[in-house]
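Collaborator request, handled under Task 6.
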Amino acid sequence: MELDTGSEERQLLVDRLGTTSLNMEERIEQSADFTELLKRAKEEDLTEIEKSGCLYQAGVDRQGRPVIVFIGKWFKPENVTMDQALLYLIRILDPVVERDYSVVYFCAKTTSENLLSYWWMKEIYSQLPYHYKKNLKDFYTVHPSMWTRLTSWWFTTFMASAIKHKLHNIYEVKELDLVINSTEFDIPMFIQEYDMSINGLRYYQP
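Structure tokens returned to the collaborator:
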């Protein structure tokens, strides 16, 4: 069954703007705003968040699309501002968003200190331009927690319904191999250990 891409495009605009109309002045203003954000993303010192290693590009999926990896446990919102988080996200995403891409979010071992507030998610999502959202084809959450599932439901119900069909929960690391060439990047050992603790050693027998 083919998706109605025209309908998806309209909904992405609604998700961002809260309206079905977009005049030329608004488009120019938004383009100028993002141009400034992109310039800052390339030039500002984002060492604090970069050295955490929480977000990076790693290999491709089974359809040859670039994969962005987010390690939830390594992200500490208390150590960065929302502005820095947005700029670093743009820095990592911008080289790949002109084409289709996928995201893998490893949720294992995350605690309250690793979680984004609803306000942060709303603000960051609203700042991203249309093609960042349109070209995201799949978002995989590995070992989703109850909080992650509830947040995904809330986010796609009230803020971003256009991306709801792109979200997928993965409960075993091995499941990733059906969609992602996971051997192209190193999965942190604590994630593999967590996976073994809940799924059993049989998944790692040769």
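The cover message to the collaborator said: "The chain is about 45% helix and 15% strand. The radius of gyration is 17 Å. Please let us know whether this matches your experimental observations."
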